[in-house]
Specification:
By secondary structure, the chain is an all-alpha fold. It contains three helices and no strands. Helix 1 packs antiparallel against helix 2 and helix 2 packs antiparallel against helix 3.
Length: 91
């Protein structure tokens, strides 16, 4: 496993632990606002992991496709990226 993959996996394991902590808070009847704050922290951490994965994709898969000789593959990866942004309402 390369360093970048290891970094992503470690972040996901940390998030997993955080989610287990939120689950415990719910089971123990913690104050709802405290639970919501922890859920928001988990969501923010997942967004950071998503950004890392997207960055890796752009620098590897997309770069390879754009530099390649297959126009259909170039169009496919561009459409894929546009689909991601459209789904998130970023465009």
């Amino acid at each position: 496993m390369n360093e970048e993959t290891s970094k992503i996996v470690n972040r996901l394991k940390s998030i997993e632990g955080h989610v287990r902590g939120v689950e415990k808070m719910v089971e123990e009847g913690a104050y709802c606002i405290d639970i919501v704050k922890q859920i928001e922290a988990v969501q923010a951490a997942l967004q950071k992991v998503s950004a890392l994965v997207l960055d890796r994709h752009l620098h590897t898969c997309v770069t390879t496709a754009i530099r390649g000789d297959d126009p259909a593959e170039r169009e496919r990866v561009i459409d894929e990226i546009m689909g991601l942004f459209n789904a998130k309402g970023k465009i």
